[in-house]
Amino acid sequence: MLTQTRTVHVHAPNKQDVQRIHRVQLLINWSAQYPTMIPTITTVLACFVFYSAKAWSPSLLNPRFHLSTTTTIVAPLFNIPPPSETNVAEFKEYASKQSPPSSFFELQQDCVRSARLARKDGHKLLEVEFPPLPAAVLEMDDVSAYEVAAANLNLALDFCKGMLAADQDQIAPKKIAILFPDEPELKFGIEKMGGSANPYPGVVMGSIRTVDPEDKRLIKPENFLLNLFGKGSGGIVKPLPDVDMYVCLIASAQELPDIEELHELDPDKTIVMYNLKLDVLRGDLGAPAFPGKDFHDRFLSKVKPIYYLRTRQYSRSTRQPPFIVNYQGCLFRAYPGQYQTLLDTGNGKYRRIVSSDERPALGLFKQQLTDSLKEQGIIEEEGKTLSFLRTGYKTTTWWEEDRENASDAWKT
């Protein structure tokens, strides 16, 4: 850490000076105890000071010429700019120690930089994941899915504005499309943007599923079935012309195959899956009326998390007061940095527990936080049997395990 150094000089009298000072203090004390002797003591004191003035050391008469001891005060420096992006090793180390953002403005800056660097490295399938609203708001019972969708739309628009302005590498997209799963949701987005499908120069809004103008049917089964078995969309997924990057919003697990089809139709364009909660959607794969688990191996495992901030809360019972320990932390990654396991220490501050190049499973993430609390003595050690009963036999989900046909891009 860069520091600034402040030097404080401390001048100390020698042994003879201390003895002389003691004698003067003794005479003063006598004058206080025997007031009748003040004239005599004052005369003696004046003679003592006058005749011994030349004997005082320079440390008292002229402190500038006395040797000094040095005390160094180290203080952190703030607002230090990041290292140059051309130095890959230094910038990765900086990103690996980067703290979670303290505001949505800072979050957008970091998110745009991560996406820009990922596009520069040739990645086409990107994931951006973070809470779209403050934690206190998301925990409220009256927060609707439409409010979350509106917040994601506004954040996605700010993200697009930042990407259009990011011309450091001369690869900034010229036109970005914000995509909704289908036309009814597109109408919702247009309404939130004041009735315009072009909310900003260079940004258009559209839907992944488009209606064929030549299709005159009143009932369209494909719009209701929603790819129940992940067999394709029947030819209504079409890439938009002259678009360099897609930002996909509010898609469900049943609508993810449409994004895969869009990638196959337009493989050279960047697709950003913006706050889709892919971890939750992966858990639905393989269930009845949902795409199979092979969809993760085939497509979702190729999606690289370039900005990932997920908070988790846990509780732990103890045999001593307070009997219940509530703790929380977050898994944070800003490309090209490592994944960081961070423990929430309160007041918006986090302490880094461990970092790794590979994304830890959620069970391992919880164990890392718990082990940190054990080292601090907040949580007591337990035997193997009780620990097994707490965690169970399996601590990973099926998609977090090593799968033969899956890519490791989703966790690196």
Brief summary:
By secondary structure, this protein is an alpha/beta fold.
How does this model look, in words?
The protein has 412 residues and is of the alpha/beta class. 35% of the residues lie in helices and 20% in strands. The protein contains 14 helices and eleven strands. It is elongated and about 125 Å long. The two termini are 27 Å apart. The model is unreliable at 1-11 and 53-69 (pLDDT under 50).
Secondary structure topology:
Elements: E1 3-10, H1 15-33, H2 38-51, H3 58-61, E2 69-76, H4 88-96, H5 104-120, E3 125-129, H6 135-138, H7 145-165, E4 176-180, H8 183-192, E5 203-207, H9 221-225, E6 245-248, H10 256-265, E7 270-274, H11 278-282, H12 294-298, E8 304-317, E9 324-334, E10 339-346, E11 349-356, H13 362-375, H14 384-391
Parallel strand pairs: 3-7, 3-8, 4-5, 4-6, 6-7
Antiparallel strand pairs: 1-2, 8-9, 9-10, 10-11
